[in-house]
Amino acid sequence: MEVAGSVAVVTGASSGIGRAAALMLARRGARVALVARNAERLREAAGEASRHSRAVAIGCDVSDEAAVGKMARRVASELGDPGILVNNAGFAVYGRVAELGAAAIRAHMETNYFGAVHCTKAFLPQMAARGSGKIINVASVAASIALPGIAAYCASKFAMLGFSEALRAELRGTGVGVTVVSPIAVRTPFFDHPSFAGVRRYSPVSLEAETVARAIVRAVGSPRGEIVVPGAARAAIWARQTFPHAFNALVAAAFRR
What we know:
The chain is α/β, with parallel strands linked by helices and 257 residues long. It has eight helices and seven strands.
């Protein structure tokens, strides 16, 4: 896929990674549909993107399958059939499993995982019929390393990674690619939720949203199944997969401290 001249849909585009990715795609010549629930911030982001290319703001709760269908029809009507889909919408609530209600845990899956499923189902048929397209699912290193305190978030990202890998295999040879972008902690409003009060949110190696956005743009033309940001974080994923008992014990000990 080429960015210039393509139609791109970016969910969770009102702030953070989604906003940065939408602006970067617009600067590179893509016509961009910015999708999110926060209408005011979404309009501001779309206004900035429109300085570089055609951009539309579409309010949509991606956990609502019917709403996603309406959003997809509007994208096709106003911009054309998308060639690039960035499933980025997501959130987290911090808390032990014993403290979270089942509804809160389910909400993570509805937005973070099923939101990506709904959008993929809405746009994949056009991509497959055309024989070209790129689906980029923004997951997290937490899709491979379970972190205490955000079990519901980890579960939703584990699900996204598994879904993406299976979908990628299904689409081999169709011209439609799937790449997962998995960053470590990013300095965005993601951590503004009150549940993170008192929790150390960032470290000296935390990323800026623009760093992840660059990886998303790079993923458009990449044949890779997953891009971990930064690449050095792959060492932690390797350690978790190779020495799971020891690695998980270290993570649990750090959480207790």
